[in-house]
Design a protein that fits this description.
Shape: globular
Structural class: alpha+beta
Largest sheet: 3 strands, antiparallel
CATH topology: Sufe protein. Chain: A
Order of helices and strands: HEEEHHHH
Strand content: 15-25%
Distance between the termini: 31 Å
Helix content: 40-55%
Radius of gyration: 14 Å
CATH architecture: Alpha-Beta Complex
Oligomer: single chain
Length: 149
């Protein structure tokens, strides 16, 4: 069975990253770029920081108030993109936003981010599942994912 077909495992991944979010603290280090994101329609209000040097994402951090979906998706994103080149990160983001839009995706590329494969069916959750990813797109200068769809 594919991970995307195991609803219990998907819920488990989301809850693990919500209860124990990774990289969930901000830094005062001025070498980090920062992007604040807030939703007008729910409690999501987060800041994402990234240290990008020589086209490589050295670190990603985040903090703020957010729902289960926003917190867990940003936590997974921070782990998935850390250490990647900006080109590799863009390829992962292409897969993630494609998955959210209901397109085919590569589970091996998305790893735990597959947990959000059904979020596109709930229009009110798309903003939650993409808020951290859109902040990271801003920090990387990827315009196509910066604005909400």
């Amino acid at each position: 069975m594919s991970l995307k077909d195991d609803a219990s495992m998907l819920r488990s991944i989301i809850m693990d990253h919500y209860e124990y979010p990774r990289n969930h603290s901000l830094t005062d280090d001025t070498t980090y770029a920062s992007k604040h994101m807030a939703s007008a329609s729910c409690i999501d209000d987060i800041e994402v920081q990234a240290k990008i040097e020589n086209d490589r994402i050295e670190d990603i951090r985040f903090d703020g108030t957010a729902c289960t979906i926003a917190t867990s998706s940003t936590s997974i994103m921070s782990e998935l993109l850390r250490g990647k080149t900006t080109e590799e990160a863009k390829a992962i983001m292409d897969q993630y936003f494609g998955m959210i839009d209901g397109k085919d995706f590569d589970e091996d590329v998305l790893q735990e981010a597959v947990a959000f494969c059904n979020v596109g069916r709930q229009a009110n959750r798309i903003k939650c599942a993409t808020i951290g990813w859109r902040a990271m797109a801003h920090l990387m200068g990827i315009e196509e994912y910066q604005d909400e769809k």
